[in-house]
Amino acid sequence: MELPNSVDLFEESLKSLIHNCSDLIVKHANDGLNLIYFCNLVDSNLVNNQLLSSLQQTRLEPFSMEGLAQSIPIGQTDLTCEMEQVIILLLRGWTVVYKVGQTDAILVNTSKQPKRSPSITEIETNVIGPQIGFTESLETNLGIVRSIIAHENLCNESFEIGEITRTQVQLLYLKDVAEEQTVNTLRQRISELEIDGVIGSTLLVQLIEDNSLSIFPQMIITERPDRVSFSLLEGKVVLLVNGSNFAIVGPSTFLDFFKSPEDHYLHWNIAMFIRGLRFLAIFISILLTPAYVAALTFHYEIIPPSLLVPLSQSRSKVPFPPLFESLFLEITIELLREAGARLPTKVGQTMGIVGGIVIGQAAVQAGFTSNILIMIVALAALSSFTTPIYLMGISIRFVRFPMIIAAGIWGGIGIVFTICLLLMHLLRLTSLGHPYMHPIFPPRWRDMVDTVIRLPFPLLSARSTFTRTPNKQRFNKNKAKQKKDIDE
After folding, report:
1. Same structural domain for residues 128 and 104?
2. Is 78 among the domain residues?
3. What is residue 51's DSSP assignment?
4. What range defines the domain where residue 160 resides?
5. What phi and psi values does residue 172 have, to the nearest 5 degrees?
6. Distance between CA atoms of 247 and 223, rounded to whole angstroms?
7. Is 488 inside a domain boundary?
8. Which residues pair with 173 in a beta bridge?
9. Is there a single domain that holds both residue 52 and residue 97?
């Protein structure tokens, strides 16, 4: 659809295509120039003080829209003769400069999008390392990443998703480091999406991951620029979504969800100890409560004799079987956690602490549960909170419930059967076509030096084979081992 040949027809066409646009403003400048914009989307100071004053002072002989566009002292300008392009950019806060008799219109970026300044991370907190986190502005997030990786090989491609929302998405990767097939796979999945709108990266990742029916996330969602930068240097691909302060990182393995960028800021032996605690916390969170239920229901012989007396005394007033007792406490813990997350910050912290103490003590005195089970459930809950990625922590807590039910029905056999089903599911998962359980399956012993364990940096010269990167070396390990004094 071409541009109309008069301002009145132009305005009527816009109002007919954009329904109920009472905030559409048309300003008349000199020499027949007209400014058209939405007053709620533009920076009024930029329009009045720079754009309008520039148009009033510009005299071109002979007149041309190309020359006028070059004289405008604002960075982003464009020429178009299509009405569809005008509408799209108008709704993003651009201003249209139109003159009667011209076949082209000038589009000037005068947008003023609501945004906040970068601040500390709220969910993925850390003690050592950068504190800055992503914001809801795509331009700000892209600038943060480029300030960390200031290299010409950092590529970014722009996409538009959603026929109604027209959400802007940036695809980031390092040329000659990221595998071309991985980039093409993600590029194809984004471009083939047919949906009305995408609000946030958490919705987008559900549309592009390999198995959307799995309870386990296959791509990392993070608000930390340092995690994104480390991932890009490893050959992974990153998606930034406008309006979301979370970036999508892929492909990702199951063990990547238990690694923190803070592990690289600590000394290697301390980082390896902390990472080992996280892996231990997985088994505690998943197996501790089901083991309690199975032991008290079917396997009394595995309980030490010295523990039988206090255990029987603790359960003497409990009328429920261990299965219902443990499910009651687990659901109570989840209710407290969900209530604390939904309430305001100060009230939520008080609710979590006071509510847990009051409800736990009242449950013991009323005979609903035993003291020992409260300690076990609390330890399992604490272990699930050690996971650096929030979505993986939720998945681990979810897995605990079917395992408790299986332990209460079949005992130890039920636990083993549930673990086998869980492992079969994990081994079949992929992330952008890459094995989810790498480097455990298929076994890659060389890649375990920075996955399961954490070795000193001089021993981490090779990149992981998981990303299939064409550039396999981070640095020359022979030169890294050389130590020279100043006088040499």
Report:
1. no
2. yes
3. I
4. 114-254+466-481
5. -115, 140
6. 6
7. no
8. 155
9. yes
The 3-state DSSP class for residue 160 equals: strand
Q: State pLDDT tens for residues 358-402.
A: 777 777 777 778 888 888 888 998 898 888 998 999 999 999 999
Distance CA 417, CA 402 (A): 11
If residue 97 lies in a helix (H) or strand (E), which one and from where to where?
strand 94-99
| Short-list 113, 110, 131, CA closest to 122 | 131
CA-to-CA distance for 347 and 338, rounded, in angstroms?
13
pLDDT digits 0-9 by tens, 431-456: 999 999 999 888 888 888 888 888 88
Same domain for 132 and 161? yes
Assign 351 a pLDDT band (cuts: 50, 70, 90).
low
**How far is Cα 38 from Cα 24, in angstroms, rounded to an integer?**
5
Separation between Cα atoms, residue 262 and residue 32, nearest integer Å: 60
Query: In this predicted model, which residue has the larger pLDDT, 283 or 20?
Result: 283
- Distance CA(164)–CA(169), nearest Å, equals 15
Last-in-domain residue among 93, 109, 125: 109
Whether residue 434 is contained in a domain is answered as: no
Same domain, 316 and 230: no
Same domain, yes or no, for 75 and 153?
Answer: no
Given a cut of 70, is residue 137 above it in pLDDT? Answer: yes
Q: Residue 403 pLDDT > 60, yes or no?
A: yes
Ramachandran category for residue 46: left, alpha or beta (phi over 0 → left; psi -120 to 50 → alpha): alpha
Q: Domain boundary at 75, 109, 143, which? A: 109
Task: Answer yes or no: pTM beyond 0.85.
Answer: yes
420 and 310 together in one domain: yes
- Whether 437 is covered by a domain: the verdict is no
List, in order, residues 6 or more apart from 65 with CB less than 8 Å away.
79, 99, 102, 104, 105, 106
Pick the residue with more confidence: 362 or 466?
Answer: 466
Amino acid at 363: A
Amino acid 77: pLDDT: 82
Residue 102 is inside which H or E element, if any?
Answer: none
Total domains present in the chain = 3
With the C-alpha atoms ordered 253, 258, 260, 264, is the resulting torsion angle positive or negative?
negative
Q: Is residue 184 packed enough to be buried (19+ CB in 10 Å), middle (13-18) or exposed (0-12)? A: exposed
Closest CA to 178 of 231, 119, 241: 231
What pLDDT shows up at residue 116? Answer: 77
Q: What is the 3-state secondary structure (H, E, C) of 411-428?
A: CHHHHHHHHHHHHHHHHH
> How many beta carbons lie within 10 A of that of residue 147, not counting itself?
11
Confidence of residue 348 (pLDDT cuts 50, 70, 90): low
